[in-house]
Amino acid sequence: MNATKQLMIEAKGVQKWYPNGFHALRGVDLEVNRGEKVVIMGPSGSGKSTFLRTFNALEDYQEGTVVVDGMELNNDLRNIDAVRKEVGMVFQQFNLFPHLSVLDNLLLAPIWVRKRNRAEVEQQALALLERVGIAEQAHKFPGQLSGGQQQRVAIARALCMEPRLMLFDEPTSSLDPEKVREVLDVMRQLAIDGMTMVVVTHEVGFAREVADRVVLMDEGRVVEIAPPDQFFNHPEHERSKRFLAQIL
Amino acid sequence: MKRLTISLRRQLFATPADGIISVGLLALLSWAGWGVLNWAINSAQWLVVRANAAALTIGRYPEAQEWRLWLLLGMLTSLAGLSWGRLRGASGWPLNDRIAAGLLLVLAVGVPPLLAFGPLNQIRVLFLLLILLLGRLAFSHRLSQALSKRFGDWWALIWGVAYVFGLWLIAGGLGLQAVRPSDWGGLLFTLLITSLTLLLALPLGVILALGRRSSLPLFRYISVGIIELIRGAPLITLLFLGQNLVGFLAPNGLAPDRVWRATGVLTVFAAAYLAEAIRGGLNAIPRGQFEAARSLGLSNVHTMALVVLPQALKVALPAMGGQCISLLQDTTLLSIIGLFDLLGIARSVLANPDWLGRYAEVYLLLAVLYWCSCAALSLGSRALEKRLASPGLQSIPKPQ
Amino acid sequence: MPVPWWRDNRKLGWFIQLAAGLFLLLAIALLLGNLERNLARAGLRLTLGWLNQPAGFDIAETLLPYRASDSYGRALLAGFVNTLRVVVSGLVLATALGVAVGAASFSGNPLLRSVTRVYVELVRNIPLLLQLVFWYFAVFLSLPSADQALQLPGMQLAKSGIYLFGADLVNGELVGGLRLSLELAALLTGLVIYSAAFIAEVVRGGIASVPLGQWEAAKSLGLKPLQILRLVVLPQALRVIVPGLNSQYISLAKNSSLAVAIGYPDLYAVAETTLNQTGRGIEVFLLLLVVYLMLDLVISVVMNAIDRLVRLQER
Lengths: 248, 400, 315
What we know:
Chain A has helices spanning 48-54, 77-86, 102-112, 118-131, 147-159, 177-192, 204-210, 228-233, 238-247, and strands at 7-17, 23-33, 37-41, 63-68, 71-72, 87-90, 165-169, 196-200, 213-218, 221-226. Chain A is of the alpha/beta class.
C-alpha cells in the first residue's frame, strides 16, 4: 500500500456470471485516481451496481482483475478484509443497524475492527454527526429518524472508519424528493473535502456539479467515459445519446 | 351499572340464536361451576395435599438441608422484586401491580395454612413476600433510579451468578453436604430441569439454526438431519433412547446419572425446536444488514454476534417464549421414565394405598401449579419483548 | 502469488468441511465401536430375526386379531393399528372441535367469545400428560358400574367402557353397540380437547388474516354471518390455516404416544413391553423412529396436497 500511489481503483477486463448463467459484467475496465469523483450511470440491469460492489468484494468476479489502493481483490481473505477497512459504502436502503443507537452505529466498526478506544472514537463520531448535520440525534434509534436523516447517518458511519475511498450505490433513490437535497449536500461537501468517490446515481445535477468523469454502462459494458460537460452536452456514442434522451 | 346490564343484555341476546346460546352457556357454566364448588368443599378430601406438600414441592430433599432451599428462595425473590422494580421504572404502582401485590398477599397468607405448613414456614412465606415487595419498591423509587440504571448492564450477569449460586445451594458439594440428583423432586426438580435445559439448549439451538442456513453443504445437511429427525420423533421415544441406549454407546457401560441423561435428551430436543424459531428470526433479517456489516470490515463472527443475532433473537422472542412453555410442559414426560418431577411425585403419592382414589384433588392442584407457571412464563416473555423492543423497530408477529 | 488455503475464500469452506467431516466420522466410528462391543457382550447383535419369535404377552385391546402366542412382529403391528385408530379419529374430532371453537371466537356473543378464550388459555397452559391422567384416573375410572351407567345422548358411560350407538343392558352388563375402552376414550378425550385448543388458535389466526374489507363487502351484499364465513372468509383463511394444521396434526400423531401412561396399548406401549422382554433397544428404537417419521411424512404429504388444492382454487 504505497501511499504515493495515484491509482485508487484499477479494474481490467472484469467479467461476472451469476449462478443462473446471466452474464452481468462483460469485460469492464475503469481507472479511478486518488481524489477523483466518478459517477456511474446507466439503465437498470446495466451492471453498474454490480460493478460498484466488486470494489469492496460484496460481489465476486470470475475473470479480470480489480485492484483497490494497491491491494488486489481476489480469493485472498486477508486482502478482502484489508480492502473493506479502507473502503466505505453507502447503500440505497441505508442499512443502519436498528437495534443500536445512531452513535453506536458509528462506533461499532472502529471499536471492533480497528480496535480503537471507545472514548476517542466517540469524540470523532460526534464530530462526524455534526458534520452531516444531525449531532442532536446521536442517542436516537434509526427507526425514529426520517429517510434523509438515516442516509446521512449511514454516510457518517462509513466515514467513521476513515476510509480512503467512498462508494455510493444509488444513495438517494429511496428518498422522498424533499430529502434528496440534504443528502446530496453532504456528498457535495465530502467531494470538496477531497474524498475519492464513486457514485452510482440518476441525479444528473449532482453529476454535472461534482463529477470529474461520468461513466455510462449498458448491458454489462462500459459505453462511454467522459467529463460531465462533454458527456451531457456532446456525447459520442449512439447509446449515450439514447440514454440521455431518456433522462434529460 | 344499569347501562352495563342493558348493553350486556343487548349483546347477549342480539338474535334469537344468540339468546339460546347465551342461555345454554349460562346454564351449563352454572351447573358445572356449582358441581365443582360443591365437590371441592364437601366431598373432596384435601388431606392428601396437605400431608404431601413437602414431597410435592421438593421431593426427597433431606429435611435438615431445607434451609438451603429457603435461602435460595429468598435470593430469588429479592432479585425478582428488584427486577420487577427495574422493569416498571419510576412509574409508581399502576393498577396491574397493585392487583398482583394484593393477590400475592392473599395467597401468601391464605395458602400455607391450607397446606398445613407449620407456623415457622408460614412466617417464612410472608417474609419472602415482603422481600419481593420491598425489592419492587426499592428499585422503582425515584431516589434509586440512578442505582437501578447502573445495575442495568450487569443485570444478566447478576442473574447468571445467582443461578450458579442457586445450583450450588441445591446440589451441595464444596462445603455444603451433597444432595444427590435422585433426591431432588417435585416442583423444585421441574423448575430446575426446565431452567437448566433452557440455558443449555439456547446456544445449541443457535448453532443448529446457523448450521441450517450455512453455505457449507456438510453443516447444512447435518443440521437439517438433526432438526428434522428430532422434530419427527415423539419425545417419549427420545427419552426412552436416552435412558436405555446411552449405556450401549458409552465405553464399558459408563453412563451418567439418569437425571442427566434425561436432561441431555431434553436439551437436544428443545434445541431442535428453538433452532426453528431462531431460524425464523434469522430469515427476517434483510440481507442489507449483512452487507452493511461486511462493508464496514466486520468479520463473519462479528457480523453474526453484534449485528444479526441480536436482531434475530428479538424477532424470534415470541416463538422462543412459546418453546419455553412447551418445555415446561414436556418435563411431565419425565414421570413416564420414572423420574420424580412434579407429576412423577404426584403419581407416586397416589400409588400409596393411604391416598387411593384421590386423583382429582392432586391433579387439580398440579393443574393449578402448571397453569400458573406457564401463565407467568407467558407474561414474562411478553414483558421481555416490550422491554427489548428498540424504539421504532417493528418485530414480526408470532407465527401461527 | 498463490493464496495459501487458509486465506482462500473459495477453498477455506471445503477444508473446514473436510476437517469437520473427518472428525465426525471418527466420533461415529468410536461410538459404533463401543456399541458393537457392548452389544456383543450382552449377546444382542443387531438383527430383525427376533421379530418372528412368539411375543408371550397380551395386548389389552386390539382391532387386529392377536394372541399371546403370535410373533413380536404381529404385536407391534397390532400396536401400530391401535395408534392409527387414535390418530385418525383424533384428527377428525379435534379438527371439528377446533374449527368450531376458532370460528366461535369471532361470534357476536361476548359470552361465547369469553368461553372460547378461557377454554383455549386453560388447555394450552396445562401439560397434556396431566390432562390425560386426569381424564383417565379422575374421571373415567370413577364412572358407575354398568347397571347405573351414565346416560348421554347417543352414548352410555360405565366402568366397563363407553358404548355408542345403542347398547342394551343384559344381565347387569352392557352389550352391543360400539364399545370404546376407558383407556381409548380417555386418550381420545384428552388428545382431542388439547389439540382442538391449538387448532382453534390456528383457525383464529387464519380468519383474522382475512382483511376486514372482505367481511364488509360480503355483509353489504346481504349475506348472513354464517354464510359469509362459509362462502367468503373460510376459503381465503384456509391459505393460512392449512400449513398451521400440518404442524398441529403431526403434534397430535406424536402425542398419541403418551397412551403408555394410561394403559392404552399403542405402538409405543407395545414397543416398550417388547424392549423390556427382548432387550433389543436399538432395533426397537429404530423401528419406532421409522414408523413415526413415516406417519409425519404421510400427514405432511396429504396436507401439502390440500395446500396446493386450496391455493389452486384461488387463482
